[in-house]
Amino acid sequence: MNSNRILYIAFIREDSESIGFVKKVMAQSKAFSQLGLESYLYISANDHAKLYKIVEGKVNEVKRLYYSSTAVYKDSKFPPLKIRNYFRFKQFIKHIKLQIAEINPSKVYIRRVRPITQDLVNLGNYCFGRGIKVFFEFPDFPHTPFVHPANKNIQSYLKYYHEKIFFKRLEKYLYKIVVISVREDFKNDKFLYLRNGIEVESIPMLKKEIESGSECKKVNLIGVANVGFWHAYDRVIQGMAKHYKNSGESPIHFHIVGEGAEIPNLKELVNGENLNEHVTFHGSKTGKALDEVFEDSHIGVGILGNHRKGLFGDSSLKNREYCARGIPFIKAAKDLDFPEDFPFSFNLPADNTPLSISELIEFYNNLENSFSDKEYLMREYALSHLTWKSKMEVVARV
Questions:
Q1: If exposure means fewest CB atoms within 10 Å of the residue's CB, which of 10, 228, 328, 332 is most exposed?
Q2: Dihedral sign, Cα of residue 65, residue 68, residue 69, residue 73
Q3: Cβ contacts of residue 331 below 8 Å, gap of 6+?
Q4: Are 341 and 334 a contacting pair, CB within 8 Å?
Q5: How distant is the alpha carbon of residue 168 from its chain centre?
Q6: How far is the C-alpha of 222 from the C-alpha of 205, rounded, in Å?
């Protein structure tokens, strides 16, 4: 066994639309390499699983292992998607055992898999039997099996008790449970509490001198997300509607970048409030196309509705990415990575009240008058406090 070798296992599709999750997994794997470990990543895709090795910051493909036709991801009524997922995960686990035997790592880091199945329990047992330290990450803690369901329906109860039973089976094989959380009040000797990090070097800093301050003709907001109800972009739109109905003097525009289940509802709200000229739905954008929208933006919009999920804190990647780019941002819950007096965040209450546009514009103009180098200051803060290397060091060292 190589005491300096770690294998990261992520049962997420590398080719899915959930780009943020994939970027995070890649960045965490690179962080292990930066911390002096020989780092491997095993991740799923549409029709195959893929093994990577990270060398000097580059993610190099080592091999592919193809799934059977019944396990390939595709929209099909037969067999149903859930059946395909079942077979794909069984084959994923079978393949990974072969890679573990070949790589012989001292640590295995598993990103949360839902639901927990007997195959995953067996993988934990397999690693435990080989003397491997197994880390299991909860990216958005707490949730089942630690919290009783708020929805009192039979499906929620069945899911909760299934996860509780199978996690108990898995837990005895785990060395540490990596809890990425806004809370630290759950007590367990195996818990390692972390907060989200980012790969700052991969995020470009704002370059363009955008019009700002008291002479700013238009304030542009940008929200980048796979948009769900908890992002609460409706709070921004409702605030804009109120602003324009009150003959707000300062024009404001909201650029929404991304897809998601909440987009149709937001479009309906925008149309109903006659804000079509003031809200742009860009769909998914990455790379230079995304950078171009940022270059014309003044303020980033974070998650404004974590309370809708019963969470009263924030550890979102988006706040950290905004900071790395050098763009002030709006948040609606306490984020322990940013102090209370952090000057570049505009704080909303954790409720459903509309955003006050006049207060936001005043906040932004005050920043412009107080910090001529705000982009640089935010970038430096991100490099010092928000990198995945700084977050994952505790895993690398135990």
A1: 228
A2: negative
A3: 302, 303, 304, 314, 316, 319, 338, 345, 346, 347, 348
A4: no
A5: 26
A6: 15
3-state DSSP assignment of residue 339: coil
Query: Helix 154-171 crosses helix 118-129 at what angle (to 10 degrees)?
Result: 10
Return contacts of 280-286, CB within 8 angstroms, 24+ apart. 280/253, 280/254, 280/255, 280/256, 281/256, 282/255, 282/256, 282/257, 282/258, 283/257, 283/258, 283/259, 284/17, 284/19, 284/257, 284/258, 284/259, 285/257, 285/258, 286/19
Cα distance between residue 370 and residue 92, in whole Å: 54
d(CA 325, CA 299): 11
pLDDT digits over 149-164, tens only?
777 788 888 888 999 9
Residues 99, 42 contacting (CB under 8 angstroms): yes
Alpha carbon of residue 351 to chain centroid: 22
What's the burial of 196, exposed, middle or buried (CB within 10 Å: 0-12/13-18/19+)? buried
Residue 374: φ, ψ to 5°:
-60, -35
**Residue-wise DSSP of 141-209:** ES-TTSS--SS-SHHHHHHHHHHHHHHHHHHTT-SEEEEEES------TTEEEE---B-GGGSPPP-S-
b/e for 32-59, b at 16 or more Cβ within 10 A?
A: bbbbebbbbbbbbbebbbbbbbbeeeee
